[in-house]
């Protein structure tokens, strides 16, 4: 799939913050989805002591959560690690990986935050805006906000609130495990985002999209997996 550049990536931290403030006004948290047939997980890992960014995309069919397409891209890491500005460090490699997939997903599940971000512009917002695809932030740790712990039941959730604004949800995908931090990235509401995350989650804490993408982004022997052809329509490459 093709993506359209909106800005330069060679920015100072101050310029990156200013850009987030500018672009966040374009984010929509209303449902603007068509039929969702394919869902994609996006995750990023690092090689060579952080000098190389490795982004992975795993495209699954929503009906059976089987892997249908995947891509990896490596790019030199050019932006420092600064909490709240991780998209400027990771998204260039993500866009390169997205250009390598042959199936355009209908929905993106990004490892990280959407509007549950100090400036309401996390990595899921950034990717969603640049691709104009509906996107969800699926975070594993808290960045900003306060909440009441949800009941220890699969599918239970409680609002994540910051400065009086509901910016996401604390979602229990599996009993007796830590919850996930879900927030809209672009073109999707919070309630719909929660529903799709649960639809993509089986017996594990993380949705299948995230599990596949994480293994591609950070797993061992990645080149061998990368060079394998995708399995037949009713099969699935074993990544675990």
Automatic annotation (TrEMBL):
Its cofactor is Mg(2+). One of its GO terms (cellular component) is cytoplasm. It is found in: Cytoplasm. InterPro entries: Endonuclease-V. Its main location: cytoplasm. The keyword tRNA processing does not apply. GO terms for biological process: DNA repair. GO terms for molecular function: deoxyribonuclease V activity; magnesium ion binding; RNA endonuclease activity producing 5'-phosphomonoesters, hydrolytic mechanism; single-stranded RNA binding. It holds the Pfam family Endonuclease_5. It catalyses: Endonucleolytic cleavage at apurinic or apyrimidinic sites to products with a 5'-phosphate. The record marks 81 as: Interaction with target DNA. Keywords: Cytoplasm, DNA damage, DNA repair, Endonuclease, Hydrolase, Magnesium, Metal-binding, Nuclease. Mg(2+) binds at residues 43, 111. Its EC number is 3.1.21.7. Belongs to the endonuclease V family. DNA repair enzyme involved in the repair of deaminated bases. Selectively cleaves double-stranded DNA at the second phosphodiester bond 3' to a deoxyinosine leaving behind the intact lesion on the nicked DNA. This is Endonuclease V. It comes from Oscillatoriales cyanobacterium SpSt-418. The gene is nfi.
């Amino acid at each position: 799939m093709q993506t359209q550049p909106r800005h330069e990536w060679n920015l100072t931290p101050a310029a990156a913050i200013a850009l987030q403030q500018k672009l966040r006004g374009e984010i929509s948290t209303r449902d603007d989805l068509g039929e969702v047939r394919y869902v994609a997980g996006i995750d990023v890992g690092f090689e060579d002591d952080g000098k190389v960014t490795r982004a992975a995309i795993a495209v699954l069919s929503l009906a059976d959560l089987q892997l249908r397409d995947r891509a990896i891209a490596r790019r030199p890491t050019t932006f420092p690690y600064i909490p709240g500005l991780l998209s400027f460090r990771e998204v260039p490699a993500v866009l390169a990986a997205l250009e390598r997939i042959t199936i355009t997903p209908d929905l993106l599940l990004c490892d990280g935050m959407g509007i549950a971000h100090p400036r309401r512009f996390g990595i899921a917002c950034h990717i969603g805006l640049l691709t104009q695809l509906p996107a969800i932030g699926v975070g594993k740790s808290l960045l900003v906000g306060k909440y009441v712990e949800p009941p220890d039941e699969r599918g239970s959730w409680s609002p994540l609130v910051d400065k009086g604004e509901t910016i996401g949800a604390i979602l229990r995908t599996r009993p007796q495990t830590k919850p996930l931090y879900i927030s809209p990235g672009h073109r999707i509401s919070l309630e719909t985002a929660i529903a799709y995350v649960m639809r993509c989650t089986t017996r594990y804490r993380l949705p299948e999209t995230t599990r596949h993408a994480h293994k591609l982004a950070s797993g061992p022997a990645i080149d061998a997996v990368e060079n394998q052809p995708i399995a037949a329509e009713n099969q699935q490459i074993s990544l675990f």
